[in-house]
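Fold this sequence, please.
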Amino acid sequence: MKTAIISGCRTPFTRAGTHFARLTAIDLGRHAVTELLARTDIPPETVEHLVYGTVVHDPQAPNMAREVGLGTLPENTPAVTVSRACASANQAISDGVNLIESGYAGAVITGGSECLSRIPILASDRLSRTLVSASRARTLGARIRVFSRIRPRDLVPVAPAIAEYSTGETMGAAAERMAKENGIARQDQDRWALGSHMKAHAGAEDGRLTAEIAPVYVAPRYKDIVERDNGIRPDTSMDALSGLRPVFDRRFGSVTAGNASPLTDGASAVLLMSPDRARDLGLKPLGYVRSYAFSALDPGGQLLQGPAYAVPVALDRAGITMADIDLLEMHEAFAAQVLSNLQALDSDGFCRKELGRPGRVGHPDPDAINVMGGSIAIGHPFGATGGRLTITLLNELKRRDGQFGLVTVCAAGGMGFAMVLERA
């Protein structure tokens, strides 16, 4: 039994610190799920599970999915939060597929949300231990003695780092290293970034991209409405991009703010059903999940090369080859990461040595990759991007009369994801 994808939508993706700065990931998630229910016109009680992804967890709401569900679905609908770095929404979708194909559910809402404008700020380890000790002190004098051990440096807040716990390397530094090791030129990275902005702008102007967006009336006054992604730069150019300084290796580097995805706020929601449940409700699916695969590699190596390992497994499980893929949606964490993965998939040497295959896996023509732009232009709310990729791909397969599409995502920890979708 294949899982049917009925519909999906998302909020606008906005740069952190802009339109959604006063909202939370829960607010954004509720908006996306509410809009999905309205678009599909199904009773909320039809949904049997909510599986939702996020990366930067709110300590006050550790199961964010439950809070999203309590604001949108009946209170007896189970909800679980999943987290697989940038592939968190893909994990949510995969878990929904597993529930449906095992017969444990007939309808599941999946997706994810992230509000990087509202990251939790932590106390230092020393201050944290001091506060715990003070709470256990029985007298005022004992508390004073505990607090007397605090030093000014202990009061400095600690923000979550976008870096590998195991190696300490940031994703940007890893992308920079991959660019050098794989010979990815600065000009090629900037050219890919320019294409991302131009295609996203075209998709927004002709309504293809905005059709998947649920406009947001921003609290608390609800007078400002956000209808579009605000990271798309139609005014950029190769000259403008080439003039930006490298960020992670200022002397010899090639990764810049212009050829990398920005920190972003946003949410997505995707409705999955068994084919029988969809038929009973009179709903026509957009498509079906044919297969998926996850991969993992040494984070000290090619950190963001996971898709190159996951793709052939997903294709094999789907019973097709890359030649059958009509469209590819590849998450653009960095242009260097995209180009490195495409290079690997098209390399006989890589595929023989790393994948144990007789030759290259290949990839679609670049004109069939990220046809409405990607995360560099549209933005990347960590927990939500997988939902956007899935719905954008299915919508474009329908418009272009294609049959098979492929979604890929790189993720922290040296992980990768690939999913084969088939148009209904």
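The longest strand covers residues 264-273. The longest helix spans residues 186-205.
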